[in-house]
């Protein structure tokens, strides 16, 4: 009993790790002289100086060669290969037996938790470490100073036209902070969210997937019925799966409008 209780405490500690989380960008936000960077569509990874953890606190089984050159200070970034490659990235990173395909993965740093100084000086700490150690699989995500909203819009469209996900904009003048904040914003052509599959609706007529009943974090449920490929409809999902979907605002009942399936999340 005591052992189980200890495990629960340790799990709670991991899940309680409060990293930075972005809010959605709105036109009223003032972002002049902030910095912008591409939002990489990979697996977020937190380096606690001992191991890599997913955003939910689960261990990432990276190979020893990948970990041994990481620094003795914390890092927050994205495990990534290239644009429009999420399924491949997820299959490599979430495998409990690391494969040779980890050679494709780079660790792209967007924050240095719990270090003093403003945002760019924190990133400079990593840049110096990478240069000193001559590392190839660790990179710092390029940050660009925003001139105005037209500059932001132009860069966002460039990234999306290259099959990128969008941008992150950030106030560069602050000390490190935790939690969800309006000082860090996601800039995309749509909003996205995650939910848990609690039921699967199969068409009695065709025998294929009709929709997924999805439960949001706030307890609201809705049916997700669009965005699936033919193959996905024929290979039914399982209850308990976490899915990502895009949407465009909410109904008066708090349900996502025009929701469309994006992918299964395993991290």
Condensed summary:
The protein is an alpha+beta fold and 267 residues long.
Characterization of the model:
This protein is α+β, with helices and mostly antiparallel strands. The protein folds into two domains: 22-187, DNA ligase/mRNA capping enzyme (D-amino Acid Aminotransferase, Chain A, domain 1, 2-Layer Sandwich); 191-265, OB fold (Dihydrolipoamide Acetyltransferase, E2P) (Beta Barrel), CATH 2.40.50. It contains six helices and 16 strands. It has helices at residues 2-15, 64-67, 86-93, 119-133, 149-161, 230-234; strands at residues 20-24, 35-38, 43-47, 52-53, 59-60, 75-80, 106-111, 138-140, 144-145, 167-170, 179-187, 191-202, 209-215, 221-224, 242-247, 260-265. The strands form three sheets. Strands 5-4-3-6-7-8 form a six-stranded mixed sheet. A five-stranded mixed sheet has the order 1-11-10-2-9. A five-stranded antiparallel sheet has the order 14-13-12-15-16. The protein starts with a helix and ends with a strand. Mean pLDDT is 90; it is low at 1-16.
Annotate the secondary structure layout.
Blueprint lengths: L1 H14 L4 E5 L10 E4 L4 E5 L4 E2 L5 E2 L3 H4 L7 E6 L5 H8 L12 E6 L7 H15 L4 E3 L3 E2 L3 H13 L5 E4 L8 E9 L3 E12 L6 E7 L5 E4 L5 H5 L7 E6 L12 E6 L2
Parallel strand pairs: 1-11, 7-8
Antiparallel strand pairs: 2-9, 2-10, 3-4, 3-6, 4-5, 6-7, 10-11, 12-13, 12-15, 13-14, 15-16
């Amino acid at each position: 009993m005591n052992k189980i209780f200890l495990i629960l405490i340790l799990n709670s500690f991991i899940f309680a790790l409060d990293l930075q989380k972005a809010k959605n960008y709105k036109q009223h936000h003032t972002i002049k002289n902030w910095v912008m960077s591409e939002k990489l569509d990979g697996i977020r990874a937190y380096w606690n100086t001992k191991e890599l953890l997913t955003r939910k606190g689960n261990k990432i089984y990276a190979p020893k060669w990948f970990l041994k050159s990481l620094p003795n200070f914390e890092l927050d970034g994205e495990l990534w290969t290239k644009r429009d490659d999420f399924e491949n990235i997820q299959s490599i990173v979430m495998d409990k037996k690391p494969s040779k395909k980890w050679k494709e993965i780079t660790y792209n740093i967007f924050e240095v938790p719990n270090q003093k100084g403003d945002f760019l000086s924190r990133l400079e700490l990593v840049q110096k470490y990478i240069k000193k150690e001559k590392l190839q699989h660790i990179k710092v995500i390029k940050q660009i100073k925003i001139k105005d909203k037209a500059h932001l819009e132009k860069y966002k469209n460039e990234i999306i036209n290259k099959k990128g996900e969008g941008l992150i904009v950030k106030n560069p003048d602050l000390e490190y902070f935790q939690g969800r904040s309006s000082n860090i914003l996601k800039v995309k052509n749509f909003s996205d969210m995650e939910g848990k599959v609690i039921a699967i609706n199969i068409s009695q007529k065709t025998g294929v997937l009709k929709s997924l009943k999805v439960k949001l974090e706030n307890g609201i449920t809705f049916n997700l019925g669009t965005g699936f490929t033919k193959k996905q409809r024929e290979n039914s999902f399982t209850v308990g799966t976490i899915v990502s979907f895009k949407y465009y605002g909410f109904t008066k009942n708090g349900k996502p409008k025009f929701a469309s399936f994006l992918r299964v999340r395993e991290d």
